Amino acid sequence: MRAYEAVFVFRPEEELYKQGIELVKNEFSRSEVTITKEEDVGTRDLAYPVKKETRGHYYFFEAQIDPFKINDMSKAVKLMDPVLRHLFIKKQ
Q1: Entry pTM
Q2: How far apart are alpha carbons 13 and 41 in whole angstroms?
Q3: 38, 52, 80, 82: which has the fewest Cβ within 10 Å?
Q4: How far is CA 71 from CA 55, 74, 86, 87, in A?
C-alpha cells in the first residue's frame, strides 16, 4: 500500500454529487482502499467545458492504495456518470 492523493470533479447538481461520492467510496471499499483524509472543496468554475458542464464539485481524498489497483479503479471511475474528471497522484 502506498499513499496517494485523489481528486474527483463531480457534476454540480446536489443529488448527482452525492451519488458520485457514494459510487467512489463503494469502489474504494471494493478495492480495499484505506481513506486517511477527505475534504469537500466545493463547487468551482471549470477552465473549459467537460461533458457540457461549466461548473464542477471538487472532492479530495488522501488514501492508502495498492498501486496495482489504480488502473482498475481509474477504469471503473471513468464509467461513472456523475464523475466529470479524476486524478490519482502518488505522494512523496
Answers
A1: 0.92
A2: 15
A3: 52
A4: 26, 5, 12, 11
Which residue ranges form the domains of the chain, and what is each CATH number? Answer: 2-90 (3.30.70.60)
How is residue 84 written as a grid cell? 466529470
- Angle at Cα 88 formed by Cα 60 and Cα 63, nearest 5°? 60
**Digit-coded pLDDT (tens) for 25-55:** 999 999 999 999 999 999 999 999 999 999 9
Cα radius of gyration rounded to whole Å, the chain:
13
Following DSSP, what letter does each residue of 2-69 receive, concatenated? EEEEEEEEE-SSHHHHHHHHHHHHHHHHHTT-EEEEEEEEEEEEEEEEETTEEEEEEEEEEEEE-GGG
List the grid coordinates of 76. 471503473
Backbone torsions φ then ψ of 16, nearest 5 degrees? -70, -35
pLDDT digits (tens, 9 = 90+) for 56-68: 999 999 999 999 9
